[in-house]
Amino acid sequence: DILEGCMSPLVLSPYSGWVLDRVIERSAPETSPSRSSASRESSPHAKQSSPPEKMPSASHRDPSPLSSAEPSEPKGNDDLNLPAMDEEVFPAVLPSKITEVEGCIWMYEEMHRLKGKEELRQRQEQQEQMVRAVYDLASEQLKRFDELKELKQHQEFRDLQEVMEKSSKESQGQQEKLKEEHRHRAKVLNLRLREAEQQRQRQEELERSRKEEGQERLHRLYSIQEEVLQLNKQIDPNYRQKDLPKIDLSTYSNRGNQICGLLSGLIRTTSERGFPTQADVGSAERALQEMRGLISSMQQEIATAVEEKRKNEEEERQKQKELLEKEESKAQTPAPAQQSGGKQQKEGPSLGLKADKNTMEWYQKLQDAVEQCIASFSELSNCKGNKEVKMIKTDLHKAATIPVNQISRVSGSRLRDVFDRLNNLLSGKSVQSGGRSVCVTQHPQGLDFVCYKLTEKLVGQAEEEVSSHRDAAFPIAVVVSGIWELHPQVGDLFLAQLHKKCPYSVPFYPALKEGTSMEEYQKILGYRFIDSKMENQDRFLKRMSGMIRVYAAIIQLRWPFGNKQGAHPHGLEHGWRWLSQMLNMEPLVDLTATLLFDFLEVCGNALMKQYQVQFWKMMLLIREDFVPRIEAITESREKGSLSRFKEFLETCLKEKEIPLPKGILQPSFWSS
Question: What family is reported (predicted)?
Fold first, then answer.
């Protein structure tokens, strides 16, 4: 508003008339003499001066724009308005009043301007003060805001720090609590571990004592078995004396063999369980006592026979004296020894523990051949320093054994390829093995080495593969038969190694020799030991069964692509010999029934076709005479294999037919 008043055009205030009245009133005493003279001179002029006196009142009464505009005219148009004035009435007073009025106006205006400036300055100062105050207030507020913000940040930081300290304290408390729990658990675990360790030590002590007791009982069993076998050697089933013709020890021999078999079965059973119990030792001791009683009875019988012989001799001498006295030299009665001898012949021979003399000589001859073969390639087998010879040995070993691993029932063409590779290798031809060309002529001892390793691998396949897959016996057997026909040395080595691993394929029950430990004796019988622990009976029977099945398949199979005009290198007559000699030997628990079943199941059909009536007579003999012998030595818990064998016999005798074995190679196989 102040600035608008300064910028707008100047106008007289409504109070200008009042100011003029006051100014005129003050100046009236000074001008009254001149004014009275003038009034006397001319009254009309006095009358004309009345309008100016009325102007302030008019102006005072009506502060309109027109009245306010009239005093402004003397200021803006002084020269124009003065001529209009009555120069004669106001010769000296009017200019001074105008000047005074103008001066007053100017003073008023100046005062008003100064006042406006002062007010403006004051207002500006107030405004500046206000601005400064506002600025100061804003600055203070900003400072307070910053202080508040900083305070808030400090509070937040303090709160956060308190929270962190609180959480830290809580975490420390939690950690302390966890540590305490951990210490408590550690104490508990230590106690439990200590208790467990003590329990384990007690268990180990008990186990150790149990093992020691078991070992003692096992050693006791072995010593009892050894003593029983030694006592059994004293019983000669073929014991005859010309002076004691009535003595027949076959009964004692049979019972002694049964006791040995029962004791061997007991030891095998206890070995499968781990260690024998006191009851097993008691049974073994009872068997030993029975054997001792048997020996004692035999000795008493021999003593009785000797005494009887002495009496008979005295009677004979007395009779001879009487005859001499009566001179009846021509009349002599038959001797009692002859009569008893005839009776013994009717009873027939007793069963033994091994095959006949010729078979045992043949067996020993094959074993000697194996030893000679091993000695013949000793240089090649002991080539530790010569890298070239060692490489030849490795190549020959791979060439001989890798094809054997590929024998299978997959296809006839593949089996024929395996046979050709083996035949070429044995014939001195080069074959490929592991990307290298191999030939037995690379070393002078190469052929003997290959023959031995090949037969060793074939017997191993019969032992391991056929024990798990019975059908695998036929492809192995047909390859062995074909190689045997072309290379007889391989057949002899195969039989020798088969007899060594399975003496029952001779057949032959090895006897315990003096100085031989029980573990070595069990190995001779065909058992395996792993970590000084004998294998269980089931595993033993499976391995023996696998080798007998391969042998039974060999004697009836021939290589279909060979020379069929010649005789089989090891034909069915050997199978008939094996079966006859098995029936002439004392049966063994589990083993005899298992081997007879596997042998007849594989080649029974071929033997039936070859020997016909004689074969069925032998089958009846097995059922009527041999099976009861097996039953007599078999306990109820060991009759699984015997039951299977009896069921097979009954079925075959009832149907008068032995079926073809499962898995035999048909003619269509060779076209695959």
Answer: Belongs to the GLE1 family.
- Identify whether the C-beta of residue 292 lies closer than 8 Å to the C-beta of residue 231: yes
Q: What phi, psi does 52 have (nearest 5°)?
A: -65, -30
Hey, CA dihedral for 250, 256, 262, 267, is it positive or negative? negative
Give the DSSP letter of residue 585: B
Cα 421 from Cα 400, distance rounded (Å): 9
Please tell me the distance from the alpha carbon of residue 559 to that of residue 567, in angstroms, as a whole number: 12
- Residue whose pair of structure tokens reads 């506002």 in the numeric block: 134
579 C-beta neighbours (distance < 10 Å), count: 23
| Residue 643, Cβ density class (10 Å: 0-12 exposed, 13-18 middle, ≥19 buried) | exposed
Q: Report the distance separating Cα 445 and Cα 452, nearest Å.
A: 11
Give the model confidence (pLDDT) of 263-301 as tens digits: 777 787 777 777 778 788 888 888 888 888 888 788 777
DSSP type of residue 661? P
**SS3 of 484-543:** HHHCHHHHHHHHHHHHHHCHHHCCECCCCCCCCCHHHHHHHCCCCEECCEECCHHHHHHH
| The two three-digit tokens of residue 207, written as one number | 């186990």
For range 559-577, the mean pLDDT: 85
Respond yes or no on whether the N-terminal peptide bond of residue 507 is cis (omega within 30° of 0).
yes
Q: Where is 437: in which H helix or E strand? A: strand 436-438
pTM score above 0.90 = no
Provide the pLDDT for residue 83. 43
**Measured distance CA(377)–CA(125) in Å, rounded:** 133
Rounded to whole angstroms, how far apart are CA atoms 74 and 63? 18
Ordered by start, the domain boundaries in the chain are: 229-316, 357-669
By the 8 A CB rule, do 587 and 626 touch? yes
Distance separating alpha carbons of residues 542 and 536, to the nearest angstrom: 10
What are the percentages of helix, strand and coil residues in the chain, rounded to 5? 75, 0, 20
For residue 436, the cross-strand partners are: 433
